[in-house]
Protein 1
Amino acid sequence: MRFLTKKIQEMSANIAVCYIFEDSLEISPMFEYLNSLSNGTLCKQVFEYKMNKGNFLESFKMAINNEVTALVVGLGKQCELTRKKFSQVVANTSRLAKNISKNAAIAFELPICQIPKADIAQITITASRIGLYEFNKYLKEKIEKIDTIEIIDDNLTVEIEKNILIGAYSSFAMKFTKDLVNESAQVATPSYISRVAEQIATDYNLEIKVYDKKQIKALNMNAFLAVGQGSKHEPKFIHLTYRPIGTPKKKIALVGKGITFDAGGMNIKPAASMLTMKDDMTGAASVLGIIQAIAKLKPQIELHVISALCENMTSGSAYKQGDVLTAMNGKTIEVDNTDAEGRITLADALCYADTLGVDEVIDIATLTGAVVVALGNNITGVLGNNQQQIDNFKKCAELSCENVWQMPILDELKDNLKSEIADFKNTGGRNAGTSTAAWFLSNFTQSTSWMHLDIAGTAWLDKSNKETLSGPTGVMVRSIIRYLLTI
Ligand code: BES
Ligand code: MN
Ligand code: ZN
């Protein structure tokens, strides 16, 4: 996908998007331009007959001439337009455009409203890519794609151009994440993902370490190893590093849950719950997407990306209920339920992150069904031990058109995971499942700025929402990139 910036007179796309507000008669430069190309027909058509005055998401299509089709899109009331609503409009409009013409370029104007123009530009890029996303690798007949987005404005500034670049790399990272999640568990094994990581390291000139089973054992990550022992695919532990030129302002570790398929283990999942469990490596895919954007945008931070990759299967060699596992930091875990495997692998990954001397740790994981019960499929749970970090992140999520909601980690949760024979059990009943899982994780990090994102509800949509179609979402990727850029 190409992103171009152009002045109105230079526009060469065959689909041109212009916006109108429900409560404003002001006509945008793009509307004016298209109207004059159509000798005034556009104005007449839109206002006299077709549109119900710019209601939110309402749209009207008109062929301006042989080359250009106009898409006039309603943004609702000017004062009610939010970043998220604008993102929904752009994603939907892109899908509309794709239906008009398969092989096309779309031009978007930047509407004037209370949202800064540079942000409008960035959202236009990310949301158009969300709208146009498809995974057609395994389709015999591939539909031709829209491959060019033109941002049209006569007063482009350095700031707008910069935000367009951030939007382009963020949306690439999201697409990368979704593609990897869409890949079947048969293909996206721990070895495959570690090879993808090696390719990224080569392409972006990053440091990489890939640990195999023997090396993982040597690091004493016996909790992680236990989870993968029922699978015929060998586990891998990956660690990529981006270093800036000069002294970093901060060192950050990003840890992604990397279960390439979660059958539940001996506590096997029912068929319906297992159906989408190839997505249980979304955390790993996300951090691999994010580091590519960071390597391109080059902020003054040191970024470590970590994932413990393995598959959770039932088999003669699988780990079992009652097993006692020792994590890298020497703490012991009694296995109460083999389906609570993510926290076991993350325990070792968090211990490893502690050895890197970082200032902050963020993990992203499809961790608990309980977060789906609590928050549904459009809100990510955020938990942690540093309120300042969480507050900063919440702000970044809002600016990135994503929903997060903080959930508590309280000492009272400790009793849920009491074991008679080990330091903890790995599960503690149905109540407060998301908080309990986070409390478990908190025992394996020494960081005083650790934040945990539970994306079990948001990583994959069974039903499309206003912005994103069903399937993988690439959730939190743009928010984390923004967070890393604001440090
Ligand atoms: N990968 C699942 C969590 C999950 C559930 C992700 C639904 C996406 C959608 C995780 O490994 C799991 O199985 N968690 C269990 C923990 C329980 C046994 C304490 C759960 O939440 O049911
Ligand atoms: Mn599980
Ligand atoms: Zn899982």
Protein 2
Amino acid sequence: MTTIETPRLVVPDLPTDLFVGGSWVSAASGRRFDVENPATGEIIATVADAGAGDALEALRVAASTQAAWAATSPRSRSEILYRAYELITARADEFATVMTTEMGKPYPEARGEVAYGAEFFRWFAEEAVRIGGDHFVTPDGNNRVVVRHRPVGPCVLVTPWNFPLAMGTRKIGPAIAAGCTMVFKPAELTPLTSLLLADVLREAGLPDGVLNVVTTTDPGDVVGAWMSSGLARKVSFTGSTAVGKLLLHQASDTVMRTSMELGGNAPFIVCDDADLNTALDAVMVAKMRNTGQACTAANRIFVHRGVIDEFAELLTRRMSALRVGDGMVEGTDVGPLVERKAVDKVAELVDDAVSRGATVLCGGTRLDGPGHFYPPTVLRDVRPDSALMSAEIFGPVAALIPFDGDGDEADDAVVELANATPAGLVGYVCSRDAERLDAISSGLAVGMVGVNTGLVSNPAAPFGGIKESGLGREGGRLGIEEFLDVTYTSTPIRRRR
Ligand code: NAP
Ligand code: MG
């Protein structure tokens, strides 16, 4: 490990209170909670710990701001988003430092997320002024129909810790563009990035009460209060499938609109005709981005038996060369996992796979503290009954599974293996044959496929899953529709005599 020194959070005046109605306020109870740097175990801030009462107050403010906000011009909403995009970009170093320090991703990756996260604001700045509608005469010629879009109303936004900026901007951007007000609960482990984001939006001219940010150690109470209040019309959630299902149940009580970005279990397929360097570049990104803590992470890597020896050797060489350490230290490739429990879970999954017959090619045992580190690990010949085949690993562990057969037969077999999961977020396939790539990518039951690449995310593309990986899409042309209701008026056409 290369942890050299303990970085301090170098951002001055970082907000740590609740953001309600444009003001920073403490929790009514006065309670606060600690935010830990997972690379050092050091406490870097204490943040207001809201309860259900604080949450409801924030939602009342959002609800009472809704009508005025919906009446603003699309251009003014667009300009706020564009200014926020510019401010985030100008303050990229601050955002990246906060993210690395509160959740561990290496600083260069955090800079990448700042660019990606800010881009959602630029994209939705452009979408805000393109909210169209429709107009037609009914087939019988008797009526003129005008189809319009209107904001769904106050929204509940809930995000995970793994992409603290981008998971927020991907929801806040389209909500602002559409004219919705919001209550936003970031993850307990990473509240600071979201509070800084609220501050930037205020500076960009977002009116008071449009965005309200509530941090808490009691997500069930806070979000539950919002869901049962009858004041919110929509919930947009990114996180685990288990919590997503709970929110879907709660949303049914008041028939709220829902968008769900839930867990994945991505297959990564290496065909026997793949260019191995391309496949290795792709798998390193799909596996190691965010130290493996991504819903899009390659969870099951299926490699054709004809190339698995060479692929495993080259992958092991690349994985063992990665430098593990504090993400603020230059030269670090792999940061810590987000918390101790995460290391426990990864260690358990690896031990289980090994006890069922997998071979460890590198890594495979947790590293000593301080900080929550697990080394880059390659497992070969992972058996189908291993727990990590159905659970998200969420760590730097590449699980290789061989598959057999020739031509179409191999392709069909691997697609069947890949689809044998309730998840359907993303898949990856590497081959040099265009027809084969087409057959496999259309056979995969997922929302997104990376073809000879390990990265599919882009603000201009409709990100999302099928099956138990979610409902709705974020980004792209569809992203704003999640925050718009469709209505129409029908007017009789007076005929000329
Ligand atoms: P999580 O436990 O579901 O947490 C996500 C958010 O839900 C957090 O803000 C969490 O608050 C909150 N939450 C927890 N329990 C809740 C409850 N009872 N009611 C309402 N909200 C509740 O997920 P995670 O472990 O942080 O994140 C990892 C998961 O997110 C993985 O499954 C990953 O695949 C998924 N993910 C999906 C996407 C996608 O786009 N499909 C993107 C990124 C991540 P606390 O922080 O206080 O627990
Ligand atoms: Mg932390």
